[in-house]
Amino acid sequence: MQLIMHPTVQETSKGYYVSKDYYTALFESAKKYVNAVKDKASSEYIERNLLENVFAIKKPVLSVTDKFKKPDGTDFTNDTITGINEGHKMLAIALWTAFRCPIAHEEVRDLRDSGLFTEKDYLDALSMLSHLFHRLDESQLRNNSE
Asked: For the whole model, what pTM was predicted?
């Protein structure tokens, strides 16, 4: 199996990636992800509040699991669905908080030269962001009027 980054991550980060500016590649791709979530959910929230609201556990605006069934047509267990939904929410918030926020508030040189965040860390984060984009593509709007 060939591993391919999500097309939006590729498009957003390509120029930065080619010039080995992995920090900006992630920074710009993370902003693109949050804007894509905002657009798909038609939400007025921004940044972390957006991610917490749109992927809320009790009443999410978008579901990353609703459309999936086991190959035999049966439902996955509630524990499985809850774990995936909760994990997705936490991963989206963690990526925003742990990677995007530091480069918004600190000099990249200080993060890099101290070893606090290496280029490899940011390449790994791009891969996680690609996963989040793939999940977003498959997500569905929820009817929370129940």
From this structure: 0.91
